[in-house]
């Protein structure tokens, strides 16, 4: 039965991905490259920015306004080269990290922030000119370092969502397609408190995680728990989760709109150089938070009585109930933790690539891939699967077009499962 559910899940995931690609094209307001130029706290106006395709064809150009903001629409998802014309910088201002040319990838429906950290110093020459004082172009080491870090950062975002969905599947057997909307819900709550109400992003994020955990508890208390008591089969519940996912997605679209927006804090934060790595401080803080939360949840599963009870329910609910464990209470706790983890994933993802009504759905297939690759229902498997998926997605852009990087990750998933169907840390089960 569980194998049938997993196979049907994979089929429906492909169907939902097809619908999602169509929905993205229909509802997105268009991809764009954008950014804010600041020298310290001072906006830098009048600077020309140009965008090109990977083949060198011009896409568009923009000039930073009085607030230092600029935006260039691009025709489709892909990787573009963005050049800052250093000859238009004010006297005494230069690109502090020596990278006036960047190649950021743009996903479907995404407004991608491009950061050019500025600082005081002698102005360099225009990009491409081999003159004394001209900044060096990014080296291969810089590119590998950027891909490595972005892969690790994205892996942690996926892992937060994957751990929650793995715990829910392990204790209930439910493949919850609405989990992506729980990720989006967390980001939207943080956006509400940060942008609309005006609270700091850190406070808004904490409130969003608390609300996400409460939403997970509320879902199981009033909805999924009721279906379990009625002994609704898992396939029916999975189809219900798909309907819930679609409903929530368009509720988010109605209230939030189709465009992506940035948090009010840390929107255009310049990166700092750490050896070959160029990392914005906000990303380091998000990484530290994600690692602490993942380690804490994993330790709780292994070293606490509630964690042992959760693993007992995942192994055999009937035997756990006969041993005196309140199965419904454990499942409700898992839904609460899963909601909080999903909300935290959404907050970090929103700080990384802006907030949009489809952001959770767009990573849902990758979350399922990570959980399946690591082994369904295993917490450590979800973490390892997320690491493999995140790193492969980024490094695959060295050999395949950026718009195909997700396809490449899923191809690797299929190849690995052909040789190890139970996943990396999954256990073999005897049938018959």
What gyration radius follows from the Cα positions, in whole Å? 23 Å
Bulk shape: elongated
Would you list the SSEs in sequence order as H and E?
A: HEEEEEEEEEEEEHHHHEEHHHHHHH
Number of domains: 2
Number of strands: 14
SS class: alpha+beta
Low-pLDDT stretches are 1-8, 10-29, 122-137
CATH architecture of the largest domain: Orthogonal Bundle
The count of helical stretches stands at: 12
As for the CATH topology of the largest domain, it is: ABC transporter involved in vitamin B12 uptake, BtuC
CATH top-level class of the largest domain: Mainly Alpha
| C-alpha termini separation | 12 Å
Strand content: 5-15%
Percent helix, as a range, is 55-70%
Mean pLDDT: 80
Report on the biggest sheet. Answer: 5 strands, antiparallel
Plain-language structure description:
- It is a single chain.
- The protein folds into two domains: 2-28 and 146-419, ABC transporter involved in vitamin B12 uptake, BtuC (Orthogonal Bundle); 38-138, Immunoglobulin-like, CATH 2.60.40.10.
- The strands form five sheets. Strands 4, 5, 7, 9 and 10 form a five-stranded antiparallel beta sheet that branches. The chain has a three-stranded mixed beta sheet with strand order 6-1-11, with no helix packed on it. A two-stranded antiparallel ribbon has the order 2-3.
- The chain has 432 residues and is α+β, with helices and mostly antiparallel strands.
- α3 (179-196) packs parallel to α5.
- The protein has helices at 2-27, 140-172, 179-196, 201-229, 234-256, 281-303, 305-315, 317-322, 327-353, 359-374, 379-395, 405-419, and strands at 32-36, 38-39, 42-43, 48-53, 58-63, 69-73, 78-84, 93-95, 101-102, 105-106, 111-113, 118-120, 272-274, 277-279.
- β2 and β3 form a beta hairpin.
- The N and C termini lie close together (12 Å).
- The longest helix is centred in the middle third of the chain and has 33 residues, at 140-172.
- Pfam families: BPD_transp_2.
- Residues 1-28 form the signal peptide.
- This is Branched-chain amino acid ABC transporter permease.
- It comes from Dactylosporangium darangshiense.
């Amino acid at each position: 039965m569980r194998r049938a559910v997993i196979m049907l899940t994979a089929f429906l995931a492909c169907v939902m991905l097809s619908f999602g690609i169509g929905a993205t094209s229909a509802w997105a307001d268009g991809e764009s490259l954008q950014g804010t130029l600041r020298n310290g706290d001072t906006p830098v106006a009048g600077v020309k920015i140009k965008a090109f395709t990977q083949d060198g064809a011009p896409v568009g150009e923009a000039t930073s306004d009085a607030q230092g903001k600029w935006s260039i629409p691009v025709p489709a998802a892909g990787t573009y080269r963005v050049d800052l014309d250093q000859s238009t910088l004010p006297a005494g201002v230069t690109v502090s990290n020596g990278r006036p040319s960047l190649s950021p990838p743009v996903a479907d429906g995404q407004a991608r922030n491009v950061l050019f950290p500025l600082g005081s110093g002698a102005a360099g020459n225009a990009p491409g000119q081999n003159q004394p004082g001209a900044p060096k172009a990014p080296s291969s080491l810089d590119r590998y370092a950027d891909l490595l870090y972005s892969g690790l950062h994205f892996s942690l975002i996926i892992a937060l969502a994957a751990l929650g969905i793995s715990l829910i599947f392990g204790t209930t057997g439910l493949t919850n397609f609405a989990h992506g909307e729980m990720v989006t819900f967390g980001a939207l709550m943080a956006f509400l408190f940060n942008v609309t109400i005006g609270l700091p992003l850190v406070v808004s994020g904490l409130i969003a995680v608390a609300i996400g955990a409460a939403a997970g508890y509320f879902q199981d208390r009033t909805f999924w728990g009721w279906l379990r008591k009625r002994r609704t089969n898992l396939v029916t519940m999975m189809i219900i989760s798909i309907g819930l996912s679609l409903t929530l997605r368009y509720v988010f679209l109605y209230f939030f709109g189709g465009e992506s927006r940035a948090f009010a804090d840390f929107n255009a934060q310049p990166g700092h150089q750490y050896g070959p790595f160029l990392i914005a401080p906000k990303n380091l803080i998000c990484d530290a938070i994600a690692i602490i939360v993942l380690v804490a949840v994993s330790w709780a599963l292994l070293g606490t009585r509630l964690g042992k009870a959760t693993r007992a329910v995942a192994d055999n609910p009937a035997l756990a109930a006969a041993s005196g464990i309140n199965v419904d209470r454990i499942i409700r706790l898992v839904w609460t933790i899963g909601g909080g983890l999903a909300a935290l994933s959404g907050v970090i993802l929103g700080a990384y690539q802006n907030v949009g009504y489809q952001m959770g759905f767009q990573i849902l297939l990758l979350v399922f891939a990570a959980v399946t690759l690591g082994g369904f229902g295993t917490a450590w498997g979800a973490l390892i699967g997320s690491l493999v998926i995140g790193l492969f997605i980024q490094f695959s852009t060295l050999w395949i077009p950026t718009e195909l990087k997700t396809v490449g990750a899923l191809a690797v998933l299929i190849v690995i499962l052909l040789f190890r169907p139970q996943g990396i840390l999954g256990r073999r089960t005897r049938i018959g």
